[in-house]
Amino acid sequence: MANSSKIYKNILVIEDNHAILDVITLILQSEAYKVTGLNKSVDMMMHIEQLKPDLVIMDIMLPDGDGRELLTQLRSEASTADIPVLMISARYTEENIQHGAFKPNGFLAKPFDIDDLLDRIEGILAGKVY
């Protein structure tokens, strides 16, 4: 019997690098997640309201915004404040990241191992904070 805890979990990925977005999308779809990808943060809140994702994976450095500011926006709205967020970044590491007022549920520095990504996602969906 398939692991039904992952089936139909909605994940929104906001990543401007098309290759990374494609890889994350393919991997998560192969793990029975429903994935929507955006390469810009514009209309992020509209997509979140429509999709009601179980998790948002967001790059910090986007062409039209800073992921940390987007996280603040997300956490400031009552309807989206509790959506878990996994931040990813090529520029920052766990040692030098400065999150600001709100911290994500998890952080991964790029390049990351696929198994680490999946472990973080499963952990965050189970309520863990990394």
Automatic annotation (TrEMBL):
Looking at the record's lineage, which domain of life comes first?
Bacteria
- Which PROSITE patterns does the UniProt entry name for this protein? RESPONSE_REGULATORY
Q: Which residues carry this modification: 4-aspartylphosphate?
A: D59
Query: SUPFAM superfamilies recorded for this chain?
Result: CheY-like (SSF52172)
For this UniProt record, the keywords arranged alphabetically read as follows: Phosphoprotein
Q: Which InterPro entries match?
A: Bact_response_regulator, CheY-like_superfamily, Sig_transdc_resp-reg_receiver
Q: Provide the protein name.
A: Response regulator
Classification via Pfam families: Response_reg
One of the GO biological process terms = phosphorelay signal transduction system
Please state every residue range assigned to the domain named Response regulatory: 10-125
